[in-house]
Amino acid sequence: MKEIKKFAVIGSPVKHSLSPKIHSHFAEKLGIPVSYEAIQVEKINFLSSVQELFEEGYSGINVTLPLKEEAYKFADSLSDEALLSESVNTLWKQDDSLIYADTTDGRGLIKDFLRKNIELKGLKILILGAGGSAKAITPALLKNNPHSVVIANRTIEKAELLLKRFSSLHDNLQTMSLSDEIAFKPDLIINTSSAGILGQGIEFPDNIFSDEAIVYDLSYSAGNTPFVDLALSKGVKKCYDGIGMLIEQAALSFEIWTQQRPDTELSKDMLF
User: Fold this and answer.
1) How far apart are CA 129 and CA 120, in angstroms?
2) Distance separating alpha carbons of residues 266 and 27, to the nearest angstrom
3) What is the Cα–Cα distance from 91 to 77, expressed in whole angstroms?
4) Which end of the chain is less enclosed by CB atoms within 10 A, N or C?
5) Residues with Cβ < 8 Å from 160, sequence gap 6 or more?
6) pLDDT by position in tens, the chain (length 272)
7) Distance of alpha carbon 87 from alpha carbon 105, whole angstroms
8) In what order do the strands lie in the sheet with 58-63?
């Protein structure tokens, strides 16, 4: 009988996470015996909790908000992408007992764009928000040759930090305040804020939506997210939530841990 591999996702809150369902589906399809749990871990207890999990025999750990930057500081060996974004969503231990780390968020987003036939080359991209999620995906976006990327945030100083960090990757990265009127017509609008899902008001610049724009919300829910509903009400025809990115980034983590790439053909109906 094959040994059961133990995996988990940690975060706060984490009870709502779909990762256990996604990884269990991957494991079942590939015939790999796996247990995968969602474990509540507070930021203050991150170090002791992760060390304890690895000591208990967990082979890999996914990290969600608000712990991705803590995981970045914790790891012994970081992938190039994790170093660049200062964000980690995947941890594992190898034979030398070091803790290795990667972020699959950006690559997962790009894979979902490819699945949806969204070609980033030459697009004018607007990112709403400058928090951890924006930091995790921006390098991957810039590496796919868009015309420009504008990061809009309520606190412009936070957006400027991302500009300073990533400007060497692209010569047309800009920032703006969410309260400013937009001076261009975005081809792709990516919402990285979870304000709508958390029941808070969604702030955005005037006139960002158009019939030709594509809207992608990193948040997801069983139905439409508030931001997707808002975009649809403004006449946007191509609107997507982040469930595809969630599945693709999970598949990349699963492949790191098991060396097997799962099929990512998963419907919302299977998860909610």
Assistant:
1) 19
2) 13
3) 10
4) N
5) 175
6) 578 999 999 999 999 899 999 999 999 999 999 999 999 999 999 999 999 999 999 999 999 988 999 999 999 999 999 999 999 999 999 877 899 999 999 999 999 999 999 999 999 999 999 998 999 999 999 999 999 999 999 999 999 999 999 999 999 999 999 988 898 999 999 999 876 555 567 778 778 999 999 999 999 989 999 999 999 999 999 999 999 999 999 999 999 999 999 999 988 888 98
7) 9
8) 34-40, 5-11, 58-63, 90-93, 99-102, 77-78
E-state strands within the chain: 5-11, 34-40, 58-63, 77-78, 90-93, 99-102, 124-128, 148-153, 173-177, 188-191, 214-217, 238-240
Is 2 noted as a catalytic residue in this protein?
no
Nearest residue to 131 via CA among 176, 65, 81, 75: 65
Q: Which helix (H) or strand (E) holds 227?
A: helix 226-233
Architecture of domain 5-103 in this structure: 3-Layer(aba) Sandwich (3.40)
Alpha-carbon span 245 to 234, nearest angstrom = 24
Phi, psi values for residue 66, rounded to 5°:
-105, 40
Radius of gyration of the chain (CA): 19
SS3 at position 155? coil
CATH topology assigned to domain 106-243: Rossmann fold (3.40.50)
Catalytic residue among 6, 29, 68, 234: 68
Structure tokens at 46: 């991150």
Pairing mode, strands 90-93 and 58-63: antiparallel
Domain ranges of the chain: 5-103, 106-243
